[in-house]
Structure to design on (214 residues):
């Protein structure tokens, strides 16, 4: 199986990269990234291209893959404005989806967010919901959407919310419980390998159950 990975330098994307490289089911992973991968993340089956996502049409790397794993995303603070946030979290994943679909990709796996809703009043879940809706409308044979709650793991920047959630995680029901980025990545690989046709949404509770072997 060949996959295209978007967001390989982020929390979930990097975990996806490590797990794809270690899994013999995948013989090639094509990585589109805004900055070069660290040396420790490069491997024989990794093909990398650093790109300006505003100029995706100039990408020379072939999108001829079986599946697309999209863990691309930012925060409004990092993006600097709502307009830039929408470009990164909506525009880039959708543009890449259309290019991959045109070259024969059959399965799109998207990291979204718990509470994503295109009709939400709050900006963040509304953009996530709009992207879900747009991807699901494309004629992929399979669309798999993953809605994790608060993500935990090693990040370059510190996030106070994550530190607080670690301390009180036991108080929350599974639906809202924080989840490790590696467990989201493992769920994505599981669903990618199953490769069942149709549309599905995988929630945090299911990902946590799989992580515990249930």
């Amino acid at each position: 199986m060949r996959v295209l990975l978007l967001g390989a330098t982020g929390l979930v994307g990097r975990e996806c990269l490590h797990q794809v490289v270690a899994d013999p089911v995948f013989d090639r992973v094509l990585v589109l990234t805004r900055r070069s991968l660290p040396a420790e993340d490069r491997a024989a089956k990794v093909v990398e291209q650093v790109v300006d996502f505003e100029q995706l049409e100039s990408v020379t790397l072939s999108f001829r893959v079986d599946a697309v794993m999209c863990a691309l995303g930012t925060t409004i603070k990092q993006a600097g404005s709502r307009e830039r946030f929408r470009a990164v979290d909506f525009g880039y994943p959708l543009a890449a989806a259309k290019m991959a679909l045109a070259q024969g990709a059959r399965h799109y796996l998207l990291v979204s967010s718990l509470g994503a809703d295109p009709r939400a009043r709050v900006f963040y879940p509304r953009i996530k919901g709009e992207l879900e809706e747009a991807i699901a409308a494309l004629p992929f044979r399979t669309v798999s959407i993953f809605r994790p709650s608060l993500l935990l793991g090693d990040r370059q920047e510190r996030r106070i919310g994550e530190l607080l959630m670690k301390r009180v995680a036991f108080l929350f029901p599974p639906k809202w419980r924080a989840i490790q980025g590696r467990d989201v990545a493992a769920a994505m690989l599981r669903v990618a390998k199953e490769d069942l046709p149709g549309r599905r949404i995988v929630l945090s509770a299911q990902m946590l159950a799989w992580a515990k072997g249930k």
